[in-house]
Amino acid sequence: TGGAALAGGLISGAMGASASRSAARAQQQASDAATAEERRQYDQSRTDMMPWLESGRSGLNDLNRLASGDSSQFFTDPGYNFARTEGQRGIERSAAARGGATGGNALRALAQFNQGLASQQYGDYYNRTAARAGVGQTTANNLATLGQNTANNIGKNLMAAGDARASGIMGGANSWGNALNSGLNSWALSRGGYFG
Description:
By secondary structure, the protein is an all-alpha fold. Helices cover 90% and strands 0% of the residues. Helix 1 packs antiparallel against helix 4 and helix 3 (78-97) packs antiparallel against helix 4 (104-190).
């Protein structure tokens, strides 16, 4: 009967160790799946945010050109060109209707109009460009926060996986230790002794 008790203890230990390994493996797989989903979602969010980030970069580059004295982009702005073309057309038609399309008054009116329009439109252009750069800055901040949160969550997943692996190892060792202790005690009792 002592041999049977020892064999039963060893079988119990093997079963406990196997169950501990299976549980640890399941926890590891769950952690790996959570990490993969976290990375997938981060990558998707980054892809989704790229148009705003790129627009912001473009706006920042335009602001840097303006700050360095290069206003060539302003003069090709569709909003400025539309307002200038329509305003000039109106002045020219008005002057033509009065018979002075090429006179000094018409030319002076065009010059004043263009100066005033450029001044007003430049401010509007600058503000729109700065807003575009601001969208990029906000997107960059959001991506930084998203990246930090993703790193934190993946770190937690890795720690959970490590804990699961360690628990599986300890659970297996405990199962074998308990099985051997129980089996040896049963064997010793069957021989009239006791291990304690």
